[in-house]
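Anyone able to model this chain together with (~{Z})-2-methylbut-2-enedioic acid?
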Amino acid sequence: MSIEIVKEIESLKKDRNALLLVHNYQDPKIHELGDFIGDSFELARRSKFTDKDIIVFAGAEFMAETAAILNPLKKVLIPSSMAKCPMAHMLTPKKMKYYRTQYPNAIIAVYVNTTAETKAMADICITSGNAVRVIRNLDNKQVLVGPDRNLAHYIQQQIPDIEVIPFPKVGHCYVHQKFTPSDIEKLKVQFPEAEILAHPEVKPSIQKLANKICSTNGMLKEARNSLSDKFIIVTENGLVDRLRSSFPTKLFIPARKDAICIQQKKITIYNLYLSLLNNRYRIHIPPNVAKKARLPIERMIELSG
Ligand code: CIZ
Ligand code: SF4
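re: yes, here you go
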C-alpha cells in the first residue's frame, strides 16, 4: 500500500470531518485506517452517535444504508457501488407483503442484511450479534425471520419456547454456505484442542459441530476471553485477519481458504481514497422509506441493551 495514498486518506478524513466505519470482513489494510472496526450492529450504533458530517462505510451496501437511515441529515458514502450483499436482495418487499398476510399474528424480524425497502416493512431488525436477545425481549410467541434460514435455525435452537418461522424458500449467504462437515472434521483431527467458532449463517450441520456460535464481534470476544490459544474460524476470512492482528500470540485457522465475500472485497484503498475525494457513492434513501425503516432499527437498538 502506498504511504502517500494512506496519508491522503488521513488528511481527507480530517478536512472533510469524516468518520470511517470498517466492517470486520474488510481487508486488513482497510481495518488499519478505520475509526471503528466492528460488526454491523456495532457500526450502526457508532454511526448513530457521531458528530462528524460525513460517514464513509467500508462494508456492504446494506450497512451503509442502515447508517443513512439512522442519520438522515448526514452524507453517507460507500466507496464501491458493487459492494452489494446478494442475501440482502433475497427477501423482497413483495415476499414481505405476501407472508405478512400468511402469518397475521407473527412479528416480522428481518436480518440487517436486507434493503431499506424491506426494513421499512418489518416490525424489528436483528443482527447476528443481537438476534437472540432481541427476539427473546419481544415477548411474542411467533416470529417470522428472514432472509437467512440458518440464522433462523440458530435462533430457534436458543429460544425453543418461541415459534421461529424462517421465510419460506429464502435465503442464505453464499460464503457461509460453503462450509461442509468434512472441512471441520479434517481440521478437528489436525488441531484436536482448537475451539471451533462458527457464525450463525452456517448450515445447521456445521452449527452442530461448533463449540460456540457467534457473530464476528462475538468471536473477537471469545478469542480474548477463552483459555484456548487455537481456534478454527468458520466465517468470512477477513475476520481471521482481524483476529490475528488483535491476538498475535494465538493461532487462528480458517475453516476454508475460499471463504471470501467478493462483494465486501470490492472496497479497496484506492476507491476509498476516491470516495473521500469526490464524495462518492452517496447513499440515497427516499425519505418516506427511511422514516419507516428507522423504527425497526431503533427498536432493535433499544431491545439489545
Ligand atoms: O452483522 C454483521 O456484521 C455480519 C454480517 C457478520 C457478523 O456476524 O459480524
Ligand atoms: Fe452478504 Fe455473506 Fe458477504 Fe456477509 S459475507 S456481506 S452475508 S455475501
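The radius of gyration is 19 Å.
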